[in-house]
Amino acid sequence: GTYAELALCKAEQVHLLPVNVSFAQGAAMGTPYATAYRGLFHRANAKPGETVLVHGASGGVGTAAVQLARARGLQVFGTAGSDEGLKLAREQGAHEVFDHRASDQFEQIMKATSGRGVDVIVELLANVNLGKDLTILAKGGRVVIIGSRGPVEIDPRNTMQRDADVRGLILPNTPPEEMASIHAALVAGLENGTLRPVIGKEFPLAEAAKAHRAVMKPGAMGKIVLVTGSKQ
């Protein structure tokens, strides 16, 4: 995000908001939805009918990934760390939700796939989950790492046994032509109502410090937006 009332950018980075979308929702679109879209469809090559697991499905990137995957015809699993977060993930389109506070969450996920495993995992906290992620992948499964807060130890044999891939992603690496196609898809989703950015909280720009503290609290719910001037 940014911390200013004005910003300098390239023309191709600016997009007209559909009439049914608020400015706060527009602010919540760019990075979370582009990251989720690129992770799911460009890095993981997720296909209709496959099963995708979204860790942190109640946060900004997580809710975006759930909506995008559901719209593309995937079977969507989501994890969250609060009852409210689990409810939100289901409201956004997750077919099954799992409490990541539960010690047996990975066993529950495998049971939900009848032991087959999941095809794609959208990983937002790799330092906590990656080792276990590799044990619940289906053959040919892919993990896309979007976030991590430190190092992690894994057993490479878990990737070998499944012909599995672990792929990283950072949005600034996206080529311009790829980003243009992503933005076109996201605008179409906004226009037809398929994509509905979830706003967790709004803060005035002067209270940016409070927004930072809110981000660091567990149990993320949607996207936090800084508002400049009067709300629109």
How would you explain this protein's 3D organization?
The protein has 232 residues and is α/β, with parallel strands linked by helices. It is 38% helix and 19% strand. Strands 3-2-1-4-5-6 form a 6-stranded parallel sheet, with helices on both faces. The protein has a two-stranded parallel ribbon with strand order 7-8.
Question: What's this, in brief?
Answer:
With 232 residues, this protein is an alpha/beta fold. It has nine helices and eight strands.
Task: List the helices and strands in order.
Answer: HHEHEHEHEHEHEHEHE
Strand content: 15-25%
Q: Examine the coordinates and then state which fold CATH places here, giving the name of the CATH topology of the domain at 30-173.
A: Rossmann fold
Average pLDDT works out at 93
Task: Give, in spatial order, the strands making up the sheet with the most strands.
Answer: 3-2-1-4-5-6
Number of strands: 8
The fourth-level CATH homologous superfamily of the domain at 30-173 is: NAD(P)-binding Rossmann-like Domain
**What is the overall silhouette?**
globular
* Secondary-structure content class: alpha/beta
Oligomer: single chain
Count of alpha/pi helices: 9
State the name of the first-level CATH class of the domain at 30-173. Alpha Beta
**Alpha-carbon distance between the termini?**
18 Å
Rg over C-alpha atoms, rounded to the nearest angstrom: 18 Å
Low-confidence stretches: none
CATH architecture of the domain at 30-173: 3-Layer(aba) Sandwich
**Main beta sheet, described?**
6 strands, parallel
What is the helix fraction of residues, given as a range? 25-40%
